[in-house]
Amino acid sequence: MSVIHITGRLRLRVSLSHGRTVPSQIMGLVVVAHALPPPTINEVRIDCHMFVTRVNMDLNIIYCENRISDYMDLTPVDIVGKRCYHFIHAEDVEGIRHSHLDRKYPSMGM
């Protein structure tokens, strides 16, 4: 089993109101994932603004802490059994699709 540490932020749409930017809508969640080396310890320190999910190799969510409800309008029942792709914002789909393409790079001329 691999351990992946994911950090991220909510992506907000902002609007101008009286000359200042104001968050107006949550657009999605932007995350960065880092595979951790096989640990000799089994836990990653959980910050107060984090929740734990477990995802299998098919990117199906198999576990989620109740704390998700503190940060999103979701409960573990809403996400367990679904694939991570289900939660990608529509404006990010093309970027995700593009990152999954099998690219053919030109040879280096060697």
From TrEMBL:
Q: CDD domains of this UniProt entry?
A: PAS
Which GO terms of the molecular function aspect are on file? Answer: DNA-binding transcription factor activity, RNA polymerase II-specific; RNA polymerase II transcription regulatory region sequence-specific DNA binding
- Note the SUPFAM superfamilies from the entry: PYP-like sensor domain (PAS domain)
Q: What is this protein called?
A: PAS domain-containing protein
Can you say where in the cell this protein is located? Nucleus
Q: Which GO terms describe its cellular component?
A: nucleus
- Enumerate the InterPro entries for this protein: PAS, PAS-like_dom_sf
Question: Which keywords annotate this record?
Answer: Nucleus, Transcription, Transcription regulation
Provide the organism lineage as a comma list. Answer: Eukaryota, Metazoa, Chordata, Craniata, Vertebrata
